[in-house]
Amino acid sequence: MPADSSNGSRRNGLTYASAGVDINEKDSFTESLESTMRRTFGPRVIPNPGGFAGLFRLDYKKGLFSRNYKDPVLVACCDGVGTKVKLAAEMGVYNTVGIDLVAMNVNDLIVQGAEPLIFLDYIAVPTVDKKMLAALVEGVAEGCKQSGCALLGGETANMPDVYAAGDFDLAGFCVGVVELKRAINPTRVKPGDVVLGLASAGIHSNGYSLVRKVVKHAGLDLGKVYEELNEKSPKGQRAKGPKKKNGNGAPKTLGEVLLTPTRIYAGNIVKLQRNYRVKNVISGMAHITGSGLADNLVRSIPKGCDAVIDRSSWPVPSVFTFLQQHGHIDDEEMKRVFNLGIGYCVIVRKAFAESIKEQLEKLGEKVFVIGEIVKGKGVVRER
Fold first, then answer.
1. pLDDT tens string 7-42
2. What residues contact 277, with CB distance under 8 A and at least 6 apart?
3. Residue 7 lies in a domain
């Protein structure tokens, strides 16, 4: 029956805000994001004020910006950051995992030879904390700028009954495009091809359930600077050069090292591919994420080939040695869980291997010749 306004029952009725969802706060935050998103826009983004979805031109037929696709294929992927968000929440540092979110998506997308076009994020929180959410989106926007795609929209879900105070989760969605004849698939890989490994920036965004367990069981302090986290050579000698520094010039704490964002390879890989519009010199690629080098690289080779990898061909970053020692983790488990220093692989024709390595290095990548493709049964094995 209708409430009687005379007895105040209408004023005491339940509201969305009393259930933990403040629509005004959420709307206010969403409206504040326009300038952040616009920093990622290029000429193919079509203004759509008040729209329920973003608009993006697949082609832009104006001189320099024209892509002129003949047989375009859309490529899409979805990924998250995993339990690295728990570490971010514990440290109260939120902008780096936004970069991670973009990286985990665009690095998957470019494996198919695609150019990233648009990105959307999904952020789930128990309550609207504008400062925290702004930092998350700033990180997402930075990742989009690095990868050359537009942050076209997203969703902030305020769900107090699902997430406890301090918790949050992230998911990302990326769409790209590739010319069909340029799309990369395992059938292009042939015996004699060379496997190039691009250095990772650290742990990236996989294995953090194990990382956090090591920190807890070994009693490690996220706010402490550990000397052994300085980079070392493969033989265990201290490498030449300065210690790892944070943005203020001071040595990085363990927490800062663990929150190092996933390296975004998209921009440089797209630039490299544009240098070979006729020749298909890149026969395969792999993003090295969960399950490690072998289980990701195997997805990029055909049944009649093996990838033979030389693990002595690149230095393992000290953060992995540190975690292995403090967690008493055996070698096989380390290989299965972590990237161990190689975040992305490019399989190329042997005649072009040195040139491609040099081009990627000029673009800022650390590149190692880590293996070769031989006749086999479709497995990755060590030399």
1. 444 466 887 777 777 777 767 767 777 778 888 888
2. none
3. no
